[in-house]
Recover the amino acids of this structure.
């Protein structure tokens, strides 16, 4: 009996302690005036602290489950992330293929302007450190005969590409704008690798685009100085060489008759202020005088 009474007394004493009221007073230190007064119990403090802890746990769980902050927790990533990465990889691969195709297109256009053959792919750059000075090549008699026959056939095909071949040029509906008014000192001569005409004019005369198109090449070379090339419709390309200045950048759209450069004599092959003007159709040079009145 005494043990039960002691246990009941302890329980009653603990319950009384939890329910015992305390007064919390905030006073002004100088005047001892009461500012704020609270009546609290130990049980109330325990309930308040427990409630705050539960609320913080629930708020943290909500942030982790329903916000993007969960992605910063190691091992807890978004389930759609692998799908997004796969989609980005596909886009990157397609962009890389498109860039390679455009680089090859511009590379071949530069080779056409320089009078070289078109390649199916861009050759890799030569590695430094190799010495080719000791290599010597000699042509056999058969190789020389084959080379002469091929050059003769190619020269004949150049004349056919001027509009008399199996794929004739039809420019009846095109109105070419004269790029420059002046005196033609040298005409089109594909047999001697002169694939355009030379027009002499005063220094600093304006050179205009012959048709609407997009600038695909605007650069400087050692032999022909400042060059600008324009891609037109119907697979036509116009080239303007020996300029003193280029007024349009690569990728710019120009209208027919719009000024694109200034007459000059840049480049080692220039003998005075003039314009070397070329027209190309499907990779073949054509005589500009057949379609334009200068």
């Amino acid at each position: 009996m005494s043990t039960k009474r002691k246990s009941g007394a302890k329980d009653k004493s603990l319950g009384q302690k939890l329910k015992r009221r305390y007064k919390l007073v905030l006073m002004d230190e100088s005047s001892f005036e009461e500012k704020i007064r609270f009546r609290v119990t130990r049980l109330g403090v325990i309930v308040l602290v427990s409630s705050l802890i539960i609320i913080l746990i629930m708020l943290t769980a909500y942030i982790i489950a329903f916000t993007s902050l969960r992605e910063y927790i190691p091992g807890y990533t978004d389930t759609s992330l692998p799908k997004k990465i796969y989609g980005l990889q596909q886009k990157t691969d397609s962009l890389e293929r498109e860039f390679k195709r455009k680089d090859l297109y511009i590379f071949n256009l530069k080779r056409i302007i320089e009078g070289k053959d078109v390649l199916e792919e861009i050759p890799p750059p030569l590695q430094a450190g190799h010495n080719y000075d000791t290599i010597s090549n000699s042509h056999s008699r058969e190789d020389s005969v084959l080379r002469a026959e091929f050059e003769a056939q190619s020269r004949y095909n150049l004349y056919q590409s001027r509009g008399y071949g199996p794929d004739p040029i039809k420019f009846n509906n095109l109105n070419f704008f004269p790029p420059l008014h002046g005196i033609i000192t040298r005409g089109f001569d594909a047999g001697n690798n002169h694939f355009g005409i030379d027009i002499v004019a005063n220094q600093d005369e304006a050179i205009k685009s012959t048709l609407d198109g997009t600038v695909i090449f605007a650069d400087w070379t050692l032999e022909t100085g400042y060059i600008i090339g324009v891609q037109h419709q119907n697979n036509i390309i116009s080239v303007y060489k020996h300029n003193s200045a280029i007024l349009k950048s690569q990728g710019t759209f120009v209208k027919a008759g719009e000024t694109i450069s200034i007459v000059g004599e840049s480049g080692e092959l220039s003998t005075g202020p003039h314009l070397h003007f070329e027209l190309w159709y499907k990779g073949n040079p054509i005589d500009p005088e057949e379609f334009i009145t200068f």
